[in-house]
Write a sequence for this structure.
């Protein structure tokens, strides 16, 4: 399977966001997106706190100006690589948001997942 897939290569137009998320989890893919609706959905859920980057799953949210995103991704690529390696070494999830002038890495420990969330997953 190719290293990078575009959602439209795998799904038909109109496929719901939960199906895309489920596919990424099952296939061990990192979702890179800027779809505001999708971002709202995953931020409202208790979002996959117990899935370590070693599964292949993660997310990179592009929050900045859409016209600036291709350039911005190239600028932060070395940082993304460092975060990814560190997450693998420390058994953490991989969740990054990239804005025009900022980056936020959610580096929560899997073992610190709130008990109520762990119980929902089991």
């Amino acid at each position: 399977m190719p290293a990078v897939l575009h959602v439209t290569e795998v799904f038909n137009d109109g496929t719901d966001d939960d199906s895309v998320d489920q596919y990424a989890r099952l296939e061990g893919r990192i979702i890179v997106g800027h779809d505001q609706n999708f971002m709202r959905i995953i931020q409202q859920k208790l979002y996959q706190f117990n899935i370590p980057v070693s599964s292949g799953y993660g997310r990179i949210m592009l929050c900045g100006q859409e016209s600036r995103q291709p350039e911005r991704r190239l600028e932060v690529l070395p940082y993304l690589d460092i975060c990814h390696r560190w997450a693998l070494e420390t058994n953490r999830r991989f969740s990054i948001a990239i804005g025009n002038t900022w980056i936020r890495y959610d580096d929560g420990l899997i073992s610190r997942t709130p008990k109520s969330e762990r119980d929902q997953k089991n």
Observations:
- The longest helix spans residues 69-90.
- Helices lie at 7-10, 17-27, 36-44, 69-90, 115-121.
- The chain has one domain: 7-121.
